[in-house]
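Case study 2.
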Amino acid sequence: MSQKPSVKTWFESGSPWVWLNAGGVAISVVLVVGLIGLIAARGLGHFWPAPVFEASFVNQQGQQETLIGEIRGSEEIKAQRLREAGFNLPADGPETYTRHQVKTGNRDLVGLDFRFALEKEIAGRYYPEDIVVLERTEWGSFYGYLVEVRENGTVVAGADDPNRFQVMQERLERVLELREQSKHIEKVDIGAVNHGLERIRLKTRGLELDGKTPENAPQAFARLAEQRAELDADYKVLEEELVKLYHQLNRDSVLMRAMDGREVEIELSKAVFAFQPNAYSLLGKIGHYFEKMWEFVADEPREANTEGGIFPAIFGTIMMVLVMTVLVTPFGVVAALYLREYASQGTITRLIRVAVNNLAGVPSIVYGVFGLGFFVYFLGGSIDALFYPEAAPSPVFGTPGLMWASLTLALLTLPVVIVSTEEGLARIPSAVREGSLALGATRIETLMRVVIPMASPGIMTGLILAVARAAGEVAPLMLVGVVKLAPSLPLDGNFPFLHLDRKFMHLGFHIYDVGFQSPNVEAARPLVYATAFLLVLLIIGLNLAAVSIRNRLREKYRAMEN
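Prediction:
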């Protein structure tokens, strides 16, 4: 007769701990998925076109006015708190009131993008289809009605023209094309001319530092003068073309009527996007949503990073991670190879391993201070003194930039790569090494052709952890290269193409700056969530790519391990 298993036997079998671990993992996965879902909902919902209402509104002073805007959020607030804030509420009224956060735009007219309004103060809310939301390059969005479309001050579509919005859209598309042309001339063509002039200036200064003058080195100075004259001529041509584009850009304007009745003339050269949210069909809303999503990913920021896109931050983050990976991989692998394959396993080696493990726990800001002091001031200053004396007193590498930020993060993630590589090397059976040596291979050939390929999955594990940490670090980057708004990307068409001395933007710092340093916090809050979600997706994408490579390597060398 079999006995029923006792509780003691059940615990001794280890089943409770298996279920406990499984439950912990499940809870962790649910929490992570829930957090990512919350960030995605808060961030991605910002790009959906919300309906814009017009209503009568009684302000806190008891005055009636017209309110035009879209509801961005609602909350229940206690009546006592409202009374303390100065609201005149009846004593027998409800205990709580619904308060809406309404985006009204028109910051150039009223000073704020948002205002709070109680539900009971908003009367006669309706949604006219001809309300226009006009996104601008400055002062945020304008909410109101389109009155007229003008060309050089002449009305081309008046208030009685039912197609005036279509006329504005056609002219706005023309303005956007002209703006792209002018931006290309400013950044690419004129940028290349300025880059060439700067190189000529540095070469001239280098000749002067070498003791050369137009008298004793006339050919060198004449050649530089000829190149400068050619660039000056190119600049004048580009300048004339740019002036013509600016004149065409400033041709069209629109007359808009705000919610307080004021009529404002807005040049279309300062407009970015115009739409009528209440006239959208479902397909129109979906098209608008993806259009704004693409703008967020592919465009440059504007309005102190509270509007526009974050492409420079995405590009800077990826570029920094790639440069950091190129720098940290050889140093980490070589250090792990020495500790595991060459160093005698004595006290000194054990102390080195303890030091490496301790370095992994050093706060990241300490690495930032070290990078600023050693990499930027000492190493960068020495490079400038040796190789770029003609640039003085302006620093080249003696200032924070992409190179020093990547080196600092490479130093920060180096212990992770060393430890994971060592673990990968330790898993390789000694018989594999001995067999290779017995077949006549040298020690270096055994390492390069047998040991390192078999340890590559462990190396990739270290890189995965390094990339995941480096992509999300912010504190050290604030000291060694990241900026709020970079004037140009580290990669362009000017020699040497990859400019490691330039400052760059980073998604993590962008989140910090927009969330805590923005002059318009309410407008920037959805972008914080959207940028955070994009940063998470970027890290997941980089990790999945590394995991895929690691799995392929693991399958490739599994037979050798067996």
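Residues 343 and 349 are 7 Å apart (CA to CA).
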